[in-house]
Design a protein that fits this description.
It is built from ten helices and no strands. The chain is mainly alpha-helical. The protein has two domains: 170 residues, N-(1-d-carboxylethyl)-l-norvaline Dehydrogenase, domain 2, CATH 1.10.1040.10; 37 residues, 6-Phosphogluconate Dehydrogenase, domain 3 (Single alpha-helices involved in coiled-coils or other helix-helix interfaces).
């Protein structure tokens, strides 16, 4: 491994996936992070230059490796679940948009038989769609909900230690952010929407008066009053 050049190639499948996800408004941050990681890896000469100017803060872990190994396994497992959840959600959205009638359980079975993304986890995914063919997201399926929550502590620990050591873990980090955002009843994008209305009059909706529809405020006047 140490003598393999750290430049990962790609054939375009990931790029097409990300493009379709944007078109269908389906979040796939883990998959997008994996694409970005490959692109960044291809910038070898530029990264070497940057390491001399910005310095490299990557260092070896000096703590107890046993718990860290367990945490990394949990982080990988949870991140994989998030990745499959995003991919399945995208396929379901595409099936609905273009009337493909895709059976997600059958999709998992087909992948199991020789596809590049084949994994034992696909057996569990097949059973999840057997239990609930209309499942919106694998994170909401009882067994997967249980497993992700059991892995959460180690997942956060692995991402935190990687960041402290200056080691990029884009897919694990993106999966964790997706998990936190997906289960959050309130997100800070209310500020984003307020800014959109301030700069471009894109309107917003009130959480306390949804029946009011889309509104616009004269933010300059409000600022002057305060």
């Amino acid at each position: 491994m140490d003598v393999i050049l750290d430049k990962a190639g790609q054939k375009g499948t990931g790029k097409w996936t990300a493009q379709v996800a944007l078109d269908l408004a389906v979040p796939i941050p883990t998959i997008a992070a994996a694409i970005d990681a490959r692109v960044l890896s291809s910038m070898k000469e530029e990264r070497l230059k940057a390491s001399k100017i910005l310095g490299s803060d990557s260092k070896s872990f000096e703590g107890d490796k046993g718990p860290l190994i367990k945490a990394v396994r949990q982080a990988l497992y949870a991140a994989k679940i998030c990745s499959y959840a995003q991919g399945m959600s995208l396929i379901a959205a595409g099936s609905k948009e273009w009337n493909w009638g895709i059976n997600l359980k059958e999709m998992a079975r087909i992948w199991k038989a020789g596809c590049i993304i084949r994994a034992k986890l696909l057996d569990d995914i097949m059973r999840a769609y057997e239990r609930d063919p209309q499942n919106q997201n694998l994170l909401l399926e009882g067994e997967f909900t249980k497993r992700v929550l059991e892995s959460e502590k180690g997942w956060r620990q692995a991402v935190r230690i990687a960041q402290e050591q200056g080691i990029p873990v884009p897919a694990m980090s993106a999966s964790l952010a997706y998990f936190d955002a997906y289960r959050s009843p309130n997100l800070p994008q209310n500020l984003t929407q307020a800014q959109r209305d301030f700069f471009g009059a894109h309107t917003y909706q009130r959480s306390d008066r949804p029946e009011a529809g889309f509104l616009h405020s004269d933010w300059q006047s409000l600022i002057k009053k305060n």
